[in-house]
Amino acid sequence: MVKKKRKIGIISGKGGVGKTTIVSNLGAALAKKFNKNVAVVDCNLTTSHLSLSLGMYYCPVTLNHLLRGETELKEAMYEHPSGMKIVPASIRLGEIEGVDSKKLKHVIKELHKKADIILLDSAPGLGNEAISAIEASDEIIFVTNPNIPAVTDVIKCKEIIKGLGKRPVGVVMNMVSKKRHELSRKEVEILTELPVIASIPHDNNVQVSLAKRSPLVLHKPRSSASREMKRLAGHLIGIKEDTSFKGRIKRFLGTD
To answer: How confident is the model at residue 2 (pLDDT cuts 50, 70, 90)?
Structure first.
């Protein structure tokens, strides 16, 4: 049986919604919990954070070098302890010079030979870097917060991906505290005309995991946000959460 290869762009209309955190945790969950061959690419060339959030401080060869045609893919790909592959962008602003983001599509095509699932951590907004990440993807996941400005940006992004012929997978609502002023899951679905595929609760452990430079699903696997991100990872590959009594006990004991 031939494995289905997937290229999934993770995008947001604005910065600060937790997109990179979602990407790193999805990658870690798919690799560690579900044993998938997954690669994560930091497509945010201007303000890259992915490698730092994963504790990868020394990455001498990056996506920037690939986009300048100065190296081969194997030199710019690193393995995280979770098992996921990482193609980081340079954290040095000077490395932007000479980079052609339009070549990203060719890099991703090459990477597809080495990974079954590729997650592209897009730059926020709809600038050239973000459009290049969208063009290199087949499917799109939108990350938003439960407020009107962030959700409005999803609507704008949706129109762009429709024009580019990409398939929307759905919306991930992040940092949800269920306060009265927040938009509900149903309201977000009505406004965006897209399914909400995950609602990640506000969890103080997220900030701790970022300080520890470790994905939350590894640092605090039983936390509320971890459980929802692992459920999202399973959803993406067609594995439903076990809601039986035995399944609930396993999750409670942290053995799922």
So the answer is: very low
Kindly list the structural domains of the chain, giving each domain's residue range(s) and its CATH number in brackets, ordered by start. Answer: 6-253 (3.40.50.300)
Q: What is the largest CA-CA distance in the chain?
A: 57
d(CA 170, CA 9): 11
For the cut 90, the answer to whether the pLDDT of residue 130 exceeds it is yes
pTM exceeds cut of 0.70: yes
Q: 12: closest CA among 120, 135, 146, 157? A: 157
Kindly list the distances between the CA atom of residue 250 and the CA atoms of 37, 120, 205, 241, 247, in Å, as whole numbers in the listed order.
Answer: 25, 31, 21, 11, 5
The separation between the first and the last C-alpha atoms of the chain, rounded to the nearest angstrom, is 27
- Helices (H) and strands (E) counted in the chain, each on its own, are 11, 8
**Structure-token pair, residue 153:** 């940006």
Q: How far is CA 23 from CA 8, 148, 163, in A?
A: 10, 23, 24
